[in-house]
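Subject: Sanity check before I submit

Could someone independently write out the structure tokens for this chain? I want to compare against mine line by line before I put it in a report. The sequence has 461 residues.
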Amino acid sequence: MRSSIQLQLASIGRSLSMRSALGFNLHTIRWSSSLPTAVKEITHPDANVSKSTRDKITRFNQYTVTTYGRPDIVLDRGKGCYVYDSEGREYLDFTAGIAVVGLGHSDDGVAKVISEQAQKLIHTSNLYHNEHAGPLAEQLVETTNRYNTTSWASKVFLSNSGTEANEGALKFARKWGKHASVSTPEKKIKFVSFTNAFHGRSMGALSATYNPKYQAPFAPLIPGFVTAPYNDVDAVKLIDDDTCGVIVEPIQGEGGVRPATEQFLKALRQRCNETDTLLIYDEIQCGLGRTGKFWGHQHFSEECQPDILTMAKPLANGVPIGAIMTSEKVGNMIQLGDHGTTFGGNPLASAVARHVVGRLSDETFLNTVEKTGQALKQDLKALQEKYSEVIKEVRGQGLLLGIEFNKDPAPIVKLARERGLLLVTAGCNTVRIVPPLIVTREQTQQGIARLAGAIEAFAAL
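---
Independent answer below. Compare away.
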């Protein structure tokens, strides 16, 4: 006779086999059973703020251009994965400043570097060398190549933001067109970008960001841009001998957290080789550890490597900095006076970035991000199973995750905030989940409980 334990195990096995046959995901079931209790009550009502806070907001609005829709709260401090408003209320931050503070708020190591460097030298301009910009460029190149058997990275240009990095990359590609097509340099000026992409708000970056809402008020944009369907291998036909650059996100962020397929990126790389076109990866959101790899494209084979990679967001954990990393052929083409910046690569930002890159590129750290992201993704899939009437899909890699809803999820941001959880939306009816990369399992479970309460309220609307 079989023991009672054996009988129980056999019963569980039959149950799981039946669920699997019906299309259930066994991993989802395991996580579903451990979902924390949903936080249903409102603990952080937006309306519950003091006159002093309202006066600050009124004064702010009086003197600033209205380009953002913000709630009537003022955040005045943070630590780790939490921020606090001027009323003293604590929020679990699943936005990380839009995927910026990878090491969390008020990180001790970052604060120490800022303090020491600020007392030493903040700015000199690029009329002179400084002690941190060169070593930072070396660190980025060498760290990138360390993860590849075929080294592609060679040179770096330091800027101040992601948009600036993309603008510089587009300039480099335009020069490449003239360099690569000696016979008809005036023709090789075309760019190919993709649907649901987001590359920035300045005129060149905006021209590559296909979104009528963003583009229409500022038309006409920079000529020569063509938009192709993302993840459509047939779209490579739009890349021709007149194309100087292709710009793409290996994992789209603002566009709804949509990973590229390996087949798609391989096809882009092959077609760019055939037409002598530069392949530009915008890794401003998916790079620097966010997906559990140092770069997002490192989830794919080395047949998918770029000619140019742009970065920013977590590079200095909130201190403004961006960078363009290029292959040798591109780096050697850029000559004296081709590009410039007053603030880019200043000693303060570069010193902080050196510290941050050292920590974000640590293999143990990256493995932890990957494992935490896997567990959080399973929790989100369990929420999808529980609230299948409103949740369509869960996507993403590492701690760049997205929940697509069946209708506009904008109300969820408020519903979650009033339960002490900060969220940010993306395109395609998606809510992004991008906590600091130091988030713990306990904190992700806390976030899931607050998110579940918000989704439950959203489903009832």
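---
OP: Matches mine. For the report I'm noting this point. The radius of gyration is 24 Å.
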